[in-house]
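Sequence and structure are kept together here, with a separate record for every protein. An example record follows, reproduced without changes.
>
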Amino acid sequence: MLKIGFPWMRPEIVTLGEILVEIMRKNRNVPHNVPGVYLGPYPSGAPAIFIDTAANLGVSSGFIAVVGEDDFGELLLNCLRKDGVDTRHIRVATGYTTGTTFVMYYSSGARKFIFHLRHSAAGQLSPDDVEEEYIAKSKILHIMGSSLAVSESSRKACYKAVEIARNSNVTVTFDPNLRPELLDVETIRKICKPIIKSCRVILPSRDEAVALTGIRDPVEAGRRLIETEPEIAVIKMGGEGAVAVTEGEVLFDPPFEVREVDPTGAGDVYDAAFIYGLLKDWSLNKTMEFAGAAGAIKVTKFGPMSGPSSIGEVEEFIKEGKKKHIDYKKPH
């Protein structure tokens, strides 16, 4: 079913950054430097997965990005339009190929990427692509750390969008989404700092929280993060659930029991579902459960952008799902 939104509507959620196709190893533990079978291309890119999920949950959603004038770019645009994302601000760059990444998995669940982004269309996003009114009329601007790392022009575009959001009372949310393959951790900390100081909610993984704060305990890392500006720090811990830290409370949400098929994009899906709850003014506890369910659904499906197709799917999953019994008083 085609879910294209009305062109005159202003999106409630806007994001910007890299959009790409992902080409994935069929089997685990097969390095990129040996011949083997890959599957794809699959629509991908952290902000693209995020905004596609938001649209599938029924929120009016807009994306600012750049694709190449090629079949991969056409694939990406068709996918987003089908799911109802406003693509009017996705530029087709003549002379550039659409961004790509190759990914392989280890049995441990760890991944290794080879990116073609900086010199692709994805790396050409610039401040000129950011229309002030488009940001100012939205309710939430979501930033991904990977979009800060793709290229200097992409980073400047994100900074411009955040400045507009702050001046327009638009809520900023941030997923650090660190990509060591693109930049070293120290540089990433430096470029993330202005966004952390401007956001209301920060949603790092546990490893990202450690990288940003130097603190291993998720609760203490969350407390350090909210000392700067965010009201809420949500530390995503994959198969061990998530913990949210605010000035007045710490909430732990245990994970749902699922059989993992493909974890790629689960954190981006979690972000979209969490922000859905934020828009609905839900309690933090309800918002975390909803986001955890959406992320759990994602890992049961193959392909980066194959998350929940509707809010009903998430609600049904919560009713039928079973959560793991984890005592967070003894974090790993």
User: Anything to note?
Assistant: Residues 152-167 form the longest helix (16 residues).
